[in-house]
């Protein structure tokens, strides 16, 4: 397939801005793109699938998150490609093609906010909006070598955003510059500028980093050296996250005693169970939202996506109450661990982006390793930022920082403080 000038990032292009203001606004002069899951008045929200687009009318209003950015002075340049119904993490779409990863053209861009990440990485826009339910901002940010922020659950309005799973859906954003990432956050979170606060501790999740295929000198050691330079060695702590989760999240026993048929040997059992609980609740909530449309229309889905969606349609309510208990217990456990200004460090993803032609497995086993990491913030509702750390074997790599629910401003400021030192230390 011939590479398009826009790297396949856009579904449709337009220029949308509010009346120019007479005074400087927080995002004046910046351009952005919007994942095709957000309503924009007068445009059909396509949800990554042509059958969805054919069976739905144009939006009659614009999502508040998009309106906030326009009101702050930014200009929207179009809607971006995504995985069908936001139900994948690769960015592959059989109907519209796979957006080209500007940092590694032979690798997938990550999904489901694939086009949003590619538009930023290719410098087609200054920043973009995506959504992150299971992984959909953090993974493409990691794979495309840019910054990606998943806010605290409920911190940014999801009105006018097609739902996937209400217990996990968040509006996230992607940028190349930590200052812009922070400015976007102030607008979307409706927060004033505040001075940075020194972290009380940055906890290295050692067992999570052992899941990574990237040598620790390119991740952990870069982070530790940067922390020591900026905040002192006393700020660095270490923990075995799987043990903490096992001890403090008793409801996970309901997901650890199922014969471990999906267990991957080196994943801590408690984190594998956390991933299982998250995916079970996502499937159940997806079914509640979309089963009626899927069964009525019988849409054409791509390989992998089709199996995943129909599995969700068959989901039952078994163990759903325990899924909610897991989320409550995990949030309490991590809040106690981190305190007000502590941060947890872990890999964003456990390895390099898959190759485009690889047709990655759709089995639960394949997803266990990445989701055992991604479900930490997802299930707790904590905020998380993926930070690029250069390249390894000619593909982008990243690290993530997680802070407690409601600490979005603190985490955005920390990224801005830490970013340049991390890049210098690589």
TrEMBL record:
PANTHER family referenced in this protein's UniProt entry, alphabetically: AMIDASE 1, AMIDASE 1-LIKE
Residue runs in coiled coils: none
Q: Please list the GO terms describing molecular function.
A: hydrolase activity, acting on carbon-nitrogen (but not peptide) bonds, in linear amides
What is the protein named?
Amidase domain-containing protein
Which InterPro entries would you find in this protein's record?
A: Amidase_CS, Amidase_dom, AS_sf
Q: Do you know which PROSITE patterns this protein is assigned to?
A: AMIDASES (PS00571)
Which source organism does the UniProt entry give?
A: Gossypium raimondii
Name of one Pfam family that matches: Amidase
Query: Amidase domain spans which residues?
Result: 21-177
Question: Belongs to which family?
Answer: Belongs to the amidase family.
Check the record and name the Gene3D superfamilies matching this protein.
Amidase signature (AS) domain
């Amino acid at each position: 397939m011939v590479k398009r000038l826009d790297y396949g990032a856009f579904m449709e292009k337009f220029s949308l801005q509010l009346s120019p203001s007479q005074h400087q606004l927080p995002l004046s002069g910046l351009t952005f793109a919007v994942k095709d899951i957000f309503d924009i008045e007068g445009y059909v929200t396509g949800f990554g699938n042509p059958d969805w687009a054919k069976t739905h009318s144009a939006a009659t209003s614009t999502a508040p998150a998009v309106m906030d950015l326009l009101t702050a002075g930014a200009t929207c340049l179009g809607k971006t490609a995504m995985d069908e119904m936001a139900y994948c993490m690769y960015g592959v779409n059989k109907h519209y093609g796979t957006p080209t990863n500007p940092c590694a053209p032979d690798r997938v861009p990550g999904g489901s906010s694939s086009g949003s990440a590619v538009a930023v990485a290719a410098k087609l826009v200054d920043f973009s909006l995506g959504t992150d339910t299971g992984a959909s901002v953090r993974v493409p940010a990691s794979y495309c070598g840019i910054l990606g922020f998943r806010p605290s659950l409920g911190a940014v309005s999801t009105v006018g955003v097609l739902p996937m799973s209400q217990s996990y859906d968040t509006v996230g954003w992607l940028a190349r510059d930590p200052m812009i990432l922070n400015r976007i956050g102030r607008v979307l979170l409706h927060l004033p500028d505040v001075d940075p606060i020194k972290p009380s501790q940055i906890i290295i999740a050692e067992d999570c980093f052992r899941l990574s295929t990237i040598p620790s000198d390119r991740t952990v050691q870069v982070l530790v050296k940067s922390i020591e330079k900026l905040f002192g060695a006393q700020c660095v702590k270490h923990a075995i996250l799987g043990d903490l989760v096992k001890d403090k999240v008793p409801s996970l026993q309901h997901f650890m005693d199922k014969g471990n048929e999906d267990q991957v040997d080196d994943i801590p059992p408690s984190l594998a169970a956390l991933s299982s609980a998250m995916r079970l609740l996502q499937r159940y909530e997806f079914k509640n939202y979309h089963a009626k449309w899927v069964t009525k229309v019988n849409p054409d889905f791509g390989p992998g996506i089709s199996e995943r969606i129909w599995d969700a349609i068959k989901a039952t309510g078994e163990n759903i109450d325990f899924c909610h208990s897991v989320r409550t217990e995990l949030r309490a456990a991590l809040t106690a661990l981190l305190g007000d200004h502590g941060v947890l460090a872990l890999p964003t993803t456990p390895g390099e982006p898959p190759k485009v032609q690889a047709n990655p497995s759709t089995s639960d086993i394949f997803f266990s390793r990445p989701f055992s990491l991604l479900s930490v913030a997802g299930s707790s509702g904590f905020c998380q930022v993926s930070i690029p750390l250069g390249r390894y074997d000619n593909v982008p790599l990243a690290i993530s920082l997680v802070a407690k629910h409601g600490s979005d401003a603190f985490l955005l400021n920390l990224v801005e403080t830490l970013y340049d030192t991390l890049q210098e230390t690589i």
